[in-house]
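J domain-containing protein (Armillaria luteobubalina), 501 aa
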Amino acid sequence: MVFGLTLVRKLSSTTLLAIPSATAESEPTEPPTKAKAKKRKRDDVAEEPSQAKKPPADASNEKAPPPPPFNKTPPNQVDEEEVQPTTIRGRLERHADTNGIRHEQLEDIYHVLAGMQKNLCERQPEFSRHVSVRFAVEQFLIVPMKKDRTLVDGTGFLPHAAAREWREWHEKNITYPEFLHPTNKLPGEEIEETGAEKEEAESESKAFDQSLVCMPKLHLKRTPEEQAAHRERKRQKKQQKRREATADDDNDDGPSYNDIDAIQAELEEQRFRERMSMAFADDERLDSLEAQFNEFVHVPKRWGGDSARPVYDDDGDFMKLDPRYMDDEEYAEWIRAGMYRNTKKHGVARQRKLPWRAQEKAAKEESRRLERQAEEQRQQRRRNRDIRRRELARQEYESRWKELLSLPPANLHFDDIPWPIAAPRLSVTVEDLTLEAVSLFLFSEETTKKDKLRETYLRFHPDKFESRLMKLVKSGEQEKVRLGMGQVVRILNDLMKQGDG
């Protein structure tokens, strides 16, 4: 028990020495529920002792620069009254007289640091023999503790980079007195121990070391940066697997190996192709032998018939004869035929191509004739369609004039006047009234040119048009209607002059 109390005091003194620099920087993001409950209880019970005068901090920590931040978020400042003092003995004696809350806090600190050392021992087995929890933690992971015994960033351990920065800052700015070394005891702590107490302390030390070895592994919480990096690595690994699977896939997949019929059909097809290739090889071999033995055709005279000279067709069989078995006359004829073929080979080829060229020429002529016939049919259909459209436009033109003369409406617009053109759209302008448009609309095969011009001229005569229709036109459209009427009258006069000429 003495050894345990001594170790707890050393651990608490070590933790509290690192508290001023840590608590001055930031507050915990979300302390544990147990720590919150103990903090409320401590505030209610130990309110009067907290008002007592606190001893000054260690001189070695007064001018220390601020430690580097653990994360990107700016740390919250902590009131100096909440910082724990560095003189652990006076603090323990003062709290021991009032209540035992502080002892529970020190035990909790001991368990937290023991868990840290267990995790360190699993990662670094060479430190499993260290008895001092403070020494192992401070040498490889400086974790400043706050008043509620939570870490600065709210996690079980700091990231490696942050731990390295805190360790460098701690070694540079924090110094411990000699009596706080793990191998020494606190001043005034020389207590005479009997043999039984020493054995009990040694057994407790061994049990403590065994408990550290048997302690379960701590599951550490990732920081936001580590969590984001972990997700990015998983995403990249998944994309790499997808790309590899896509690269290995074949676009033309064969039949499934579970389909026995498909596999058998594929094997049969392969065997058939092998047999066909072997048959083609045999045919090529036989053809080469036949060409070798039958390069020249020789028919002996005793088998040639009664005639003295054999009769050959014009397909070149005569040139295939073997000259070794010819007489002088046959050999001379064979030479003359070969020379004629060599000198007149272009003419011979042209004679052979004449029937083919005649057929090709006849096919081209027939194709051109069919194209001309199809084009004439398309033009005829287009002309018939235009004629029907003009006839419908003329009928509508006549009906609109009858309606306009029988029941003249008021406030006429320019488009309400039936102009003598086949308008492609509903809206008509003065520019649409041209000589070609008017003549194409008025003249047809059924009516004579002169009668149609006279009828149209009477309708658009300036005097009659002014007296009958101009008063019905809207005042804003009258000038435009007069322009259209004048344009139609001039076109009609030109058409009449052309007819008279």
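The CA atoms of residues 333 and 430 lie 91 Å apart. The longest helix spans residues 345-406. ok done for today
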